[in-house]
Amino acid sequence: MFQKRKICLAVTTAVLLPTPVLVNAQEGALEEVIVTASRRAESVQDIPFNVSALSQEDLIEAGITRPEDLAKRIAGVSVIDGGARFRNSLSIRGIGAPGASSSDFFTTEATSYYVGETPMENLNLRIKDVERMEVLRGPQGTLYGGGAMGGTVRYILNRPDPDAFGAKVATNLYDIDGADSVSSDTEFMLNIPIGDNFALRAVGNYLDQKGFIDYVTFPDKLASGALPEISEDNYNTEETWMGRVAARWLINDSWDAELAYIAQDQESYGRQAFSGPSTDVFGDPIESDFVDEDTHTGFNDESSQRDIKLVSFDLRGSLDFADLTFHASHYEDDYDTEGDVTRFLEGLYVGFYPEFDDFNAWNENEITTETDTVELRLQSTGETFDWVVGTFYTQQDREWNLLEYTPGLNEFFWGEGTSVPPNDFNLESEGDYSQLAFYAEGTWHATDNLDVTLGIRHFDMEDEIDMFIWYPIYEGLDDFDDRSDPCLTDPDSICFSDSSKGDFDDQFYKLNLSYTFSDDVLTYFTYSEGFRRGGANAASGGQASDSEAVEKLFEEARFYQPDSLNNYEIGVKSTLMDGRMTLNGAVYYIEWEDMQIIVGSVDDDQGNSISLPIDQRVNAGDAESIGAEVELSAMLGETLRLDASASYNKIEADGDNAYFEDGEAIYGKPEWQASLALNGDYQLNNGLQWGWYAAVAYRDDVATGNDFLSELSSYTLLDAALSLYGSNWTASLYGDNLTDEDYETSVSSAEFRNRIYTGRPRTLGIRLSYDF
Questions:
Q1: 52-56, 225-229, 698-702, 723-727: least confidently modelled range
Q2: Quick one: which of 57, 269, 411, 594 has the most CB atoms within 10 Å?
Q3: pTM for this one?
Q4: Residue 255: its pLDDT value, please?
Q5: How many domains does the chain have?
Q6: What is the CATH number of the domain that holds 273?
Q7: Are 409 and 424 spatial neighbours (Cβ–Cβ below 8 Å)?
Q8: CA distance 407 to 405
Q9: E-strand stretches of 81-197
């Protein structure tokens, strides 16, 4: 408690410093930050909603190379760090807190992501050569569509520049506490002008990250001698190659076109988690799999391979009455994993699988997503009335194939020579999703001080999902290659198939009133709406039961409905001390309807908890949220800068339902977060410069809704860096998590395995860069 008060007091004191403290500071103003969050270029201080931006220099100085690093700098942003095996997703204002689970790959997040003009459902790409990052808080439904409930994160990349040649090489060599060798993150950039109106830009990146979590055989399996020992120290490694090539053509003074291609190949092993005790379907412990807080237990290899390709085309130009933007993109994400599921099956079918002494199990996941997107947008260039109109279309195809293998088990049950498949469980899921939307926003400059903005987005979507589940282990079949035979010819066969097709149309609305008291103070009120589409869970019918109540619950869990929210927000933005300080803040109230959450079990009519084979996404009633955010940036001297932020967020259930009681806190959301950063740059007599950076970030404790670990403890992270600058080179020594804080970012009990996902330990490194 004292630590929380100490950190929050430091931030609050910085925010509330009386202005005379800064009056005597040396001359020097903050640089104006220009963003395009409103689809037109504006200063952050002139946009009447809550947006934060980090420039390329800010990102480099703070060492922000991963999405999860944003949580240490931006107010109201939290993250679950699942390591390379899982997508690391951001939650803004506590809306959406996805878990680290492969079954969550077909679900839509509550935060939308953009790389340039391309919408992304997650941030699996390693983004390099970034001009700036923009974080838009609150629903952005009218301009950014479905999924932008908590907010939107935008990566604005550097574009090919026909005016000058440029090249850069950089490397980051770092040692993670507990790893057995040094990790590296190396990149290059090459910008080549061709003539006066054409340019190419190429970016490459190679990451070789060492692990710090050991992987060992289940202790009880090793003690019994049933299975051979496996051991791999520092197993959670990652190796990633990324490349980007872009070509830009300045057609004339008013039009330009850009074609870009991004490819990424990622290979990783293990999980960024340590194992807790396993349980069976009734919640009873099997054997403790806990070894220590740096060890994950299992038996089979756990690896993942991800290949990503993104092709995009952008055309921008000026018409007589408006500016035009056309965007088209094609995105492919192929993700293959292998994982140990021995404990999962032992826990699911108590007394069945364990009869086979040599029992062990593993699965293969093949998940493929292809998305095509087209958007056409017009925005006015007038003065009295500004408007933006556009149309948006996206088409997505999704496939998930899962095979579960139990070596030797089929022969054990059916006898040697029996014609049975080598696996005991098959799942196939295919989905097709499309959306057509039209949107418009208009701003009336009613007076020199008062602006009124209205926005609307209408969309029509179709979502179709087909699922097929089959348990070959129960069948002594000769024709197991024909998957349709068991379901069609044998009514008692253990197989499931289902289809869902939904058509949905709706509108988002937005109202914004802003008033400028002076050139330096702006206040605003915003009402905005957000929406996230529904979908279907995989394998919700995968556990056979004779109970009608249980079957009904499985059926209800199979499909989940869209959720939406209404946001009411009041904010102020101020520029003080002749441009040497900015102080921005907002308070908000949110109504969240048909809230989507992730659960691992459901209750039957008698209140008995029935575990689901794979985590499921369900609707859990309504909720209400209140919160506040404040951000301060100030020049304390000519070269000394302070950045501070704090946020408060509380989400409670609105009414009783199967998952929460009225007024109960919604799990997965920290109430308090705060950060404080200082950096300075100084000139040396020999023409060189040196600089330093220090930052502290605090996250409150988090209720998890998990019986194994009901609360994630609060933590404080301390980062620092010391840099030397030449005319075209930089060398920096840095440390992240200098106090080597042990902190958890998530807990999962999927597959009857209690896993605690942990943040990265203390990391010390050196960054080197050279510009040609």
A1: 225-229
A2: 269
A3: 0.88
A4: 96
A5: 1
A6: 2.40.170.20
A7: yes
A8: 6
A9: 90-92, 111-115, 118-120, 130-137, 151-157, 166-176, 183-193
